[in-house]
Amino acid sequence: MPFPAEPVDWAAPASFYTGSDELVELADVHIKHSGLLLPVHSQVLATQAAVLRSLFRALREDAGSAGGGTRAIMEVCTGG
Questions:
Q1: Which end of the chain, N or C, is less surrounded by CB atoms within 10 Å?
Q2: Is the pTM of this model over 0.70?
Q3: Strand 72-75 vs strand 29-33: parallel, antiparallel, or unpaired?
Q4: Coil/strand/helix, residue 57
Q5: Which GO terms describe its molecular function (predicted)?
Q6: CB 78 within 8 A of CB 33
Q7: How far is it, in rounded angstroms, from Cα 63 to Cα 24?
Q8: Are 13 and 28 in contact (CB under 8 A)?
Q9: Sign of the torsion angle spanned by Cα atoms 45, 47, 49, 54
Q10: Are 13 and 4 within 8 A, CB to CB?
């Protein structure tokens, strides 16, 4: 799916990269960056990055042992 021609709507930035509210609803992880919570799909990210795969696996194990859900928030730290 190509990116939309319109600029990013910062009130709902996920619509820029997902193209569908239905996909946003299916997100199982949120990445926090510059105060924005961006819904993402852990399985998609995990297939592309081994370090994220390990992180998501550890989060699921921790959530399971604590009796909580598997949703997580990962804060992206940017230098500066």
A1: C
A2: no
A3: parallel
A4: helix
A5: dioxygenase activity
A6: yes
A7: 22
A8: no
A9: positive
A10: no
